[in-house]
UniProtKB/TrEMBL annotation:
It comes from Micromonospora humi. The keyword Iron applies. Its cofactor is heme b; FAD. GO terms for molecular function: 2 iron, 2 sulfur cluster binding; heme binding; nitric oxide dioxygenase NAD(P)H activity; oxygen binding; oxygen carrier activity. InterPro entries: Cbr1-like_FAD-bd_dom, FAD-bd_FR_type, FNR_nucleotide-bd, Globin, Globin-like_sf, Globin/Proto, MRET, OxRdtase_FAD/NAD-bd. Keywords: 2Fe-2S, Heme, Iron, Iron-sulfur, Metal-binding, NAD, NADP, Oxygen transport, Transport. SUPFAM superfamilies: Ferredoxin reductase-like, C-terminal NADP-linked domain (SSF52343), Globin-like (SSF46458), Riboflavin synthase domain-like (SSF63380). Residues 1-133 form the Globin domain. It comes from the Bacteria. Residues 138-242 form the FAD-binding FR-type domain. In the C-terminal section; belongs to the flavoprotein pyridine nucleotide cytochrome reductase family. Belongs to the globin family. It catalyses: 2 nitric oxide + NADH + 2 O2 = 2 nitrate + NAD(+) + H(+); 2 nitric oxide + NADPH + 2 O2 = 2 nitrate + NADP(+) + H(+). This is nitric oxide dioxygenase. The keyword Phosphoprotein does not apply.
Length: 373
């Protein structure tokens, strides 16, 4: 397994700077092998290309961690049930993937790399299919939008109720969402912003960059209304509470990265009796701290919870000034805490660097990014 992981990483270095070419070749070959597969994908493919690369890189990087590798791929297989993927599709995809890798890598490709990717893909498809087959839930859930609240030009908080079947999730996880009325066959992942409940209601915090319209986030922020129907896929993600830990907890959230942190705090209000919980919540401007009033209400009724807001671009802000990753370091050390980090890629990178400098053990840190690391 270690040798396969090494060969995968070496060979990936040959193609990682040519992602557009790789994806273009892959999809062209895939649809040539099976034209019917084109119906499973959205009309505009750019977002789909990003997800393909992310899946490949994640699988390659976790090959030397069998437990993580297995969990990730089984979850990916469950998630891909929403596309109605069959075992025959996995075989066709493998042929197209190898063909794309060989073509883009060119003369740097060799037989060892080829065999390593064959072996890796065999393991990938086996685990994904096993995860799909073991899932007794529907491929996706229909959900009705209950409420929709705008916070400025680019952010919305909405609640939905999953219909017909209960949707099981854990605080800190995320689901794929489709808005079929506006963008059929286009899915995007969003963290669930509340803990599981008997009402089967999920909350999402959605931001569309620079207030722009289009794609799933734009549709959810600007066009979705109460009564609309969405589709939700199987929950994924491991940024969940460790049930065996007694360590105090640090949560760091940036922007709509508050969503999974809020869900974790809600879950802790039900089960926590002994752990101190420190939430740092950052944004550029005060009006972007849309979730602060709700957090302050929780602080008022739970003495083990503290919330520290921070703004980076407003010198008159009454709270902490600076990037939230910098603010966290002023309150450390955090070496004896379980740490949860969620936000933009840049914010997560900076916070992880700060925690590493503080000598926080890597296995005490869980994180989610809204964008590629």
């Amino acid at each position: 397994m270690e040798n396969v992981a090494r060969l995968l990483k070496e060979s990936w270095a040959l193609v990682e700077e040519h992602g557009e070419r790789l994806c273009g070749h892959f999809y062209a070959r895939l649809f040539l092998l099976d034209p019917e597969l084109r119906k499973l994908f959205p009309v505009q493919m750019s977002g789909q290309r990003d997800r393909l690369l992310e899946a490949i890189v994640t699988a390659a990087q976790t090959m030397d961690d069998p437990e993580t590798f297995d969990d990730y791929l089984r979850g990916l297989g469950r998630d891909h049930r929403k596309y109605h993927v069959t075992p025959e599709h996995y075989e066709t995809l493998g042929v197209a993937l190898l063909d794309g890798l060989r073509s883009v890598a060119g003369d740097g490709w060799n037989l060892e790399y080829d065999q390593a990717w064959r072996d890796a893909y065999a393991g990938i498809s086996e685990r994904m299919q096993a995860g799909a087959e073991a899932d007794g839930n529907p491929p996706f859930w229909h959900a009705e939008v209950l409420t929709h609240e705008r916070h400025g030009p680019d952010t919305a908080v909405l609640t939905v109720r999953a219909l017909q079947h209960p949707l099981p999730w854990q605080a800190g996880q995320y689901v794929s969402v489709e808005a079929p009325r506006y963008l059929p066959r286009t899915w995007r992942t969003y963290s669930v912003a509340n803990a599981p409940n008997e009402e089967n209601v999920l909350e999402f915090h959605v931001r569309t960059p620079d207030g722009g319209a289009g794609w799933v986030s734009g549709a959810l922020v600007r066009r979705t209304r109460p009564g609309d129907l969405l589709r939700l896929a199987a929950p994924m993600g491991s940024m969940t509470l460790d049930p065996d830990s007694t360590r105090d907890i640090l949560c760091v959230a940036g922007g709509v990265g508050l969503a999974p942190i809020k869900a974790l705090v809600e879950e802790l209000t039900r089960v926590n009796r002994t752990r101190w919980v420190h939430v740092f919540y950052g944004a550029r401007h005060p009006d972007e701290l849309y979730g602060l009033p709700g957090l302050e209400e929780l602080v008022a009724t739970h003495p083990w919870l503290s919330v520290t807001p921070a703004c980076s671009d407003d010198p008159d802000f009454a709270g902490e000034a600076g990037d939230v990753s910098e603010v966290v370091t002023r309150y450390g050390p955090w070496t004896a805490h379980d740490c949860y980090v969620s936000g933009s890629a840049a914010m997560v990178r900076a916070t992880l660097r700060a925690l590493a400098a503080d000598d926080v053990p890597p296995d005490h840190i869980r994180f989610d990014t809204f964008g590629a690391l």
